[in-house]
Amino acid sequence: MAEITDWKARYRDALRDMEHRERGWRDFELALRRLIGRLCRVGTGQSPSIDAALARISHQMQLEGSGPAEIEALSKTLLEAVTANDCPRNRWEASCNAAATLFERLSAGPMPDPTMQALASEVAVADSDEALAKLLMRAAEFARAQAGKLAKEREAAAAMLTRMTQRLEDIATFLDATKADWKNSQDAALGLDQKVMSEVDGLSKAAMAASDLAPLQVVIATRLESIASHVQDFRDKQGQLYQEQMERAEKMTLRVAELENRAQDLSRSLEQERALARLDVVTGVPNRIAFEERLREELARWKRLRTPISMLIWDIDRFKTINDTYGHRTGDRVLREVASCFANRLRTNDFVARIGGEEFCTLLIGTNAEAALRVANDLREAVANLNLQYHGKPLKVTVSCGITSLRDSDLKDDHAIFERADSALYRAKEAGRNMCIAA
Questions:
Q1: Which of 203-217, 232-246, 279-293, 410-424 has the lowest mean pLDDT?
Q2: Residue 189 and residue 197: Cα distance in Å, rounded?
Q3: Of all residues in the chain, what percent carry a pLDDT higher than 70?
Q4: What average pLDDT does the chain have?
Q5: Chain centroid to CA 148: how far?
Q6: Which of 81, 310, 323, 358 has the greatest number of CB atoms lying within 10 Å of its CB?
Q7: How many CA atoms lie within 13 A of 376 on its CB side?
Q8: Where are the domains of the chain?
Q9: Which residues are tagged catalytic?
Q10: Cα 106 to Cα 120: distance, rounded to the nearest angstrom
Q11: Which CATH class is domain 288-438?
Q12: Chain centroid to CA 270: how far?
């Protein structure tokens, strides 16, 4: 019977979960319909034919009964209108801007998602409808994966909460039993006291009334034997009570230890998730979130100790050309190789992060601007000497760098050091690239 009840409960839970997922997908569909409608409004103004096609699509998106066939037919009409239009560039820019806005909003929040941040940065280098469509497909796949991940995390949290509730109930039961045992022990002690006092009182009265020693001795022996019996019975009951308490305490200790272990596992899992959220998914080095946290830490430490700290901002030269010529997969490989080159040549107390697109930032701890310039040129040359190839042919990659060190004026403006280094980077690129300039 219990198994049937449990099966029914699981079935109801599964139904609720399916209903929740269905509502989620309906909300996702509604959001996509709204996005398409807004994209249609953004794309208006190109030509009357395009405006008419966009108006029909926007109207169709408001109808819940619209299916793939209707949408496909409208898409073909829109494609024909766009092809016939002689100003496709505004449409392309509007589409890219809309996609970038979508990714930026999805990555917004106290803990921005690095995957969405990466997608937002890649929109800037997308050069075709196919490339933009791939980015949107990656976003959709990521959204689906995140939904599945959240569902699993919700199930794990619910299971953990159930176990914790059960353990808390066990603890409450243990405390109630301990309280009852204490009361029983008190009652037993009081009963023993009353019995012993009764025997002593009877013994005293017998001694006062006795006129012959022999009968008195018999009375005393009997009373003492009764007292000993009461005491022994009390000891037996207390021993049994103590044994039961010890068994319950041992079980509770094991359950509490199990709960602590599960709590530690959950804590470690959350810490691992937190660490992963601060890694760039493409290169494996820390992302911008981690960089901003580390910069705040180093600024606070510098205010106390005034140990020199230098910041190096890097940019891969002509990275868009690499993506356009060799493809985004090769571009990602270039990002990984450059990140690895930086990470492998820095000291353990230094820090490197990918802060967006093809930009990296390095913090050199205990290094002034003059020494930082030497380190930067060494790293620049190391990148230029990377043995990168594309289909057996050499692939030349260079980087530019802007360098600065912390100053007293940075105490008033935490962003000043970044702006100086970024300005120096801009000058390095304007001067011809593949160089390092200090500010």
A1: 203-217
A2: 12
A3: 49
A4: 75
A5: 14
A6: 310
A7: 34
A8: 2-159, 160-276, 288-438
A9: 358
A10: 10
A11: alpha beta
A12: 7
